[in-house]
Amino acid sequence: MAIRIVSSTRLARSLQRGISSVLFMLLTGLSLGGMVFGGIYYVRSLQVQSVTVHALTQAQLKAWSGIEAVRQYLFQIGAVEAAKLSANQVVSFAGVSGIAATVSEVLANDTVNCGGGTRVGFNITGSSGGANALLAATFCAKGSPGGGGGGGKTAAVNIKGNLDISGDLTVIGDASSKIVVDGKVTGAGSLAGISNLYASGDISLGGSTSIETLFSEGSIALSGSGSYSQVQSLKNVSLTGGVSAGTIKANGTVSLESNAVTELLAIGNVTLGSSATIATLKTKGSVVASNSLITGSAQVQGNYEEQVAGTVAAGNYGGSLTVQPWNTGVHMSRVAGLNVAITPLTAGTISVPTFDAYAYQSSANYAFERVGSDTKVTVKNVSNIPDGVYFLVGSGANQDYVCSSNSYSPASCPAKICTGYSEYNSCLSYSGGKWTLAGVTMAPGIVWFKGDFEAGQGTFYNSWLATGNINTGGTNVSYAVNYAGHASVCTNSSYPNLAPKNFCKAGSSTLLTVGAGNIAFGAGGQVGNNYTGGKVTLAASNHVYGDVLAGDILETGGSTTVHGYISAARIGTAPGASKIGASTKIDLSNLPSSFKPGETAVTPSAANSANLLWSRYR
Fold it and tell me: pLDDT at residue 261 above 90?
């Protein structure tokens, strides 16, 4: 047997065969692993980047949505309200998430960049998925609601404070006529032609009254022979006499005597007197009836008690039923835990009237003031009389001239502006702070008085404004300038050469209108914190063609007809309450197109607008 001996060196070489292949494969595997993990990291980075870009895009969209929301807000409020915003003021977005904003700057009356509107800057932040986008945006807001008086259609009768209707009040020519009283209403006279009466206080009415809807934030007590479609009270309702109603709804109790009601809804208890007749009754309280008749259904959450022989056609109660043993006419079933659903009434919003004669002074064609023993007249926008301050002068047969000096001379007196009862009588006098007009007529236009004013007998085409009180006398007939129309104002037969230029345009047969021209009488003035006058008293046999605005209280008497709206702002200090006495008529039929009742603002309202001027990311 042969034996082969292999050297150790050769053996080692044999054992090392293939190691390079293993190392090569290992390195190749590591390289491939690195490539795979690198690819995974790259893809992950792309995914993260995509999510970030998406989140940032959404944040930017949120920010731009915020810009549009802010623009819409500025469009609603206009330049006047936008000017009340302040720097660093936080803006909240109701019902919108991911948007925040603060005011960065406010500049009112910007004539350089905003055409006289209000320039407002905002910092608007949009947020989404952890990303934020900040936009700096600047807007221009324009438009205003007007000022000085009412700026649009309001209630035909708008009273701040209590109202006493002791006489008859009739509204004609407006099927949706409304009376608004921010106070109590009491009256025993008759009311007719009124669609809606709203009062913040109690309402107590008697007499013969017909109103479609009666609403009180207090209690309502009705007597006499009234007829109402809707009677609604945040407190209690009481009917007596021959009053009837379609629907009564009260957050409190309801009490009827022998009244007829179609539907009664009460959160509180109900008391029904003898012969009270109701078609449908619902209450969350209890009912005590005495010989009453419910012809339909009665749903009573509490107890029902019929003390005599009253009947109920059908119904349910949740508490107990009490009837006379012999009375089999109450057909009601007990439902344990009965819940009668009645939605409580809520108060509405009252538009409070206001008036300040001083706001209209610059609009007046003739503004009268007493300086020492002289009467001075500021004339403005009147044909053939240069604008300026004149003296009202009279001498012999030359009365009521405006003159450059306090004595009459033809050379210094350009025009006669008023006609007395004779050529020797002045139509205007002054005594003890009161101006008195007593004549035939006056040059048409807006007439302003510092102090009290009495409009006496005559026919006038003027809007009368006074910083004190106003009262009328005798058979005064006054046409507000806008109501009077072009012929009576611009080609007036008594004063054809004294046309008020703010109403009359040369070559045109159409009357130009301004807010003050809708006012027939306006009384009261504000100086600092003090309000003077504001009481308007319309006496017997007055025909007023235009709005009557009392800064304090209003009183009517005799046979008074107002072809326009009436209001009392209760800003002054006169004792008592506003009163409508004797026979007062609000006639809103056949109004001329130039007359707009309720639109008495000194500065007319301008249409709102809001535009983005510029923006940038921050």
Answer: yes
pLDDT-based confidence at 65, cuts 50/70/90?
confident
3-state SS class at 302: coil
Q: What angle do CA 426, 491, 364 make, to 5 degrees?
A: 60
pLDDT tens readout for residues 473-488:
878 999 999 999 999 9
Residue with structure tokens 């050529």? 423
3-state secondary structure of 45: helix
Encoded tokens for 213: 């809807």
AA letter at 144? S
Separation of alpha carbons 11 and 186, rounded Å: 130
Is 0.90 surpassed by the pTM of this model?
no
* Residue 11 one-letter amino acid: L
**At 14, which helix (H) or strand (E)?**
helix 8-15
Alpha helices in 466-537 (DSSP H): 481-490
Say which residues have a Cβ less than 8 Å from residue 20's Cβ, sequence separation at least 6.
none
Length of the chain: 618
Which are the contacts of 347, defined by CB distance < 8 A and separation ≥ 6? 200, 217, 234
Helices within 511-613 (DSSP H only): none
For residue 606, the model assigns a pLDDT of 57
Count of Cβ atoms closer than 10 Å to residue 452 Cβ: 21
Tokens of 192: 């007719």
**What type of residue is 172?**
I
d(CA 369, CA 525): 14
* For residue 20, pLDDT beyond 90: no
CB–CB of 428/449 below 8 Å?
no
pLDDT of residue 609: 83
Q: What is the DSSP-derived secondary structure letter of residue 427?
A: S
| CA dist., res. 542 & res. 538, Å (int) | 7
Which of 55, 122, 18, 156 lies closest to 562, judged by CA?
156
| Sign, CA torsion 166/167/171/175 | positive
Query: What DSSP assignment string belongs to 344-367?
Result: PP-----------GGGGGGG-SEE
Are the CB atoms for 259 and 238 separated by under 8 Å? no
The greatest distance separating any two alpha carbons of the chain, rounded to the nearest whole angstrom, comes to: 176
Residues with Cβ < 8 Å from 385, sequence gap 6 or more? Answer: 379, 402, 414, 415, 498
Could you tell me what percent of the chain has a pLDDT over 70?
90
- In Å, how far from its chain's centre is CA 341? 32
> pLDDT for 330-341, tens place per residue?
999 999 999 999
- What is the DSSP track for 216-285? ESS-EEE-TT-EEEEEEESS-EEE-TT-EEEEEEESS-EEESS-EEEEEEESS-EEE-TT-EEEEEEESS
**How confident is the model over 599-608, as pLDDT tens digits?**
998 755 456 7
In angstroms, the CA 469 to CA 573 distance is 11
Return the residue matching tokens 């060196």.
9
Q: Which position has the token pair 């209001």?
A: 567
The radius of gyration of the chain from alpha carbons, rounded to an integer in Å, stands at 40
CB 402 within 8 A of CB 415: yes
Give whole-number Cα distances, 160 to 206, 466, 567, 577, in Å: 22, 20, 8, 9
- Distance separating alpha carbons of residues 155 and 350, to the nearest angstrom: 10
Which one-letter amino acid corresponds to residue 61? L
